Amino acid sequence: MGFVTILFSIAAFFVIDTEHRKDEVTHYKDYIDKVAITIIDDETKIEMTFKEAAYYIMVAESNHELQAIKYNETFPHQYWNIHIGDRTMSEIIKEDILVALIRDMIYYNEAQKAGYELSEEALLECSLQAQDEYGAMTGKQFEATQYELEDYYNVIVKINLVKYYMTILMEEGYTEEELSVDGEYYQKTSEKYEVTKAEDIWKVISIGSITIN
Questions:
Q1: What global pTM score does this model have?
Q2: Which of 106, 102, 116, 107 is nearest to 53 (CA)?
């Protein structure tokens, strides 16, 4: 293959890759107000939209972005297509995101049922955290998530209530391992819930190109 042909191939890949990533942003925005996950127990039904789930996607993609750049500085998007067994990195991280979403929804509901709330001081800290992180969001993150500051704050409050509830459980004697998704306490608690995922939508969402370039 000649030098000119190689350059053309690289340029063509760049155009295709860039267009693919643009499409993923538009693609995700199509689903932003649809229900992503539903959990139901004997007392309650909680739904999470793809808009709220976008926070978890944004964090996961940001956490892996540096590794993607290290893997291929010119075309970091290739990192997400690495195969580990029969799954790509994108698919593995998507599953991790879903596990985290369901865990937080269950623990959030358990905290609410037990009557726990964040203190005024804790809510103020959530507000300051939301303002700082919201102010640091990139244009692509804004475009993909469609977040206003209130949206960001609401997610932060829920996550911090989950953390607070888990802290209380550890003070009662449960270990971090028991409370983890593979732990005995979480497994027993999650058995009380019926979990439904919007499989048809999650199937077509490609992690690694939604909120990052």
A1: 0.86
A2: 102
